[in-house]
Amino acid sequence: MGENHLMTVAEAAGYLRCTKSYIQRLIKQKRLDAKLQNAPVKYYLIDPVSIEKFKSTPKNKGGRPRKQRT
Fold first, then answer.
1. What is the pLDDT of residues 29-61, one digit of tens each?
2. Under a CB-based contact definition with an 8 Å cutoff, are residues 23 and 12 in contact?
3. Strands 34-38, 42-46: parallel, antiparallel or unpaired by DSSP?
4. 4: number of CA atoms within 13 Å, CB side?
5. Helices 48-56, 9-16: inter-axial angle, 10-degree rounding
6. Considering the entire predicted model, what is its pTM?
7. Alpha carbon of 41 to those of 19, 44, 67, 70: distances in Å?
8. Which residues lie closer than 8 Å to 55 by C-beta, 6 or more apart?
9. SS3 at position 9
10. In angstroms, rounded to a whole number, what is the distance separating the alpha carbons of residues 45 and 33?
């Protein structure tokens, strides 16, 4: 990835293999650094460094703990 290349939501979704709505949710939760562009159509430009940082963080596996075998 280039140093100064900002990514669109669609590019970030393809890179992280997730949906565009999930990327937008991460932006609204301030988990990804993005800039809102107010061209004729509003769109986000995302910093690739924040995407790499998000990708490298360990994921919290929620849910019920496994039963202990006795």
1. 999 999 999 888 899 999 999 999 999 988 777
2. yes
3. antiparallel
4. 0
5. 30
6. 0.75
7. 20, 10, 51, 60
8. 16
9. helix
10. 9
CB 36 within 8 Å of CB 44: yes
The domain spans of the chain are 9-54
Reading the block at residue 49, the tokens are: 């460094």
The tally of CA atoms less than 13 A away on the side-chain side of residue 2 is 5
Strands annotated E in the chain = 34-38, 42-46
Closest CA to 15 of 39, 35, 32: 32
